[in-house]
Design brief:
Shape: globular
Low-confidence stretches: 122-126
Distance between the termini: 16 Å
Strand content: 25-35%
Number of strands: 5
Number of domains: 1
Largest sheet: 3 strands, antiparallel
Length: 126
């Protein structure tokens, strides 16, 4: 990513499809930070979340995504334009970094039964 330095509480991601702006620009590369208690409180108090609890996912993601492509301001309304595959990816990525603490999944080789870790990816990227 460009000049923004990633900290140990921030994680880079690549969306499978990307957020497409009305001008046709596609944003796939992003940075998500760990969620805080303040974020949780903000989501619960947000007007749109009170109207529909499902909207809380977009509100939370807008709080923790610090950059998406060349966008530094990510709003719930902007995230409404995500493809469902990208939304599913972001939800899983959020859960992985906030609950498990990293983006690596333990796996076992089906041939030799060796255990190792691979980086989480729904995008098909390696």
């Amino acid at each position: 990513m460009d000049s923004h330095e990633i900290t140990d509480t921030e994680f880079e991601f690549i969306l499978p499809r990307g957020l497409v702006e009305t001008e046709g620009m596609v944003h796939r590369l992003g940075v998500m930070r760990l969620a805080t208690a303040k974020d949780e409180i903000y989501v619960q108090k947000h007007r749109r979340t009170k109207e529909s609890s499902a909207y809380g996912v977009l509100v939370m993601l807008s709080q923790v995504i610090t950059r998406l492509g060349n966008l530094s301001l990510v709003t719930p309304e902007l995230l409404e334009g995500l493809f469902t595959r990208d939304l599913a990816y972001l939800r899983e990525f959020y859960n992985r970094i906030n609950q498990d603490g990293d983006v690596y999944i333990p796996v076992e080789c089906p041939h030799c039964n060796s255990n190792f870790q691979v980086e989480f990816s729904l995008s098909g990227e390696s």
